[in-house]
Amino acid sequence: MSLHDWLGRHLPDTAHSHWEGGYFVSRCTQCGRAMVKLPGLPWRLQE
Questions:
Q1: pLDDT value at position 6?
Q2: C-beta neighbour count of 41 within 10 angstroms
Q3: Across-strand partners of 19?
Q4: By C-alpha distance, which of 34, 40, 32, 42 is closest to 4?
Q5: How far apart are CA 17 and CA 43, in angstroms?
Q6: Are 35 and 44 in contact (CB under 8 A)?
Q7: What does pTM read for this prediction?
Q8: What is the predicted pLDDT for the residue at 1?
Q9: Which residues of the chain have pLDDT under 70?
Q10: Residue 17 to residues 2, 3, 7, 35, 41: CA-CA distances in angstroms?
Q11: Hey, is 7 helix, strand or coil?
Q12: 24 backbone dihedrals φ, ψ, rounded to 5°
């Protein structure tokens, strides 16, 4: 686990997000981990 994972805020790259399987899908601008979002809810890391 990196320091960014433990303390940092994951911020989605919304300029390159896309719609897939009912979710908005993007990547964290800092660490590149996959992020997902349902309409009306906040972004979260994909499990």
A1: 72
A2: 10
A3: 24
A4: 32
A5: 11
A6: yes
A7: 0.81
A8: 63
A9: 1
A10: 24, 25, 24, 9, 15
A11: helix
A12: -80, 135
- Residue type for 8, please? G
What φ, ψ does residue 42 adopt, rounded to 5°?
Answer: -75, 160
- What is the three-class DSSP state of 5? helix
CA distance 12 to 39: 14
Helices (DSSP H) in 1-47: which residue ranges? 3-7
> What value, to the nearest 5°, has the Cα angle with vertex 31 and ends 11 and 34?
70
Measure the CA–CA gap between 5 and 16, rounded to whole angstroms. Answer: 21
| Dist. CA 39–CA 5, nearest whole Å | 24
Q: Is 25 exposed, middle or buried (0-12, 13-18, 19+ CB in 10 A)?
A: middle
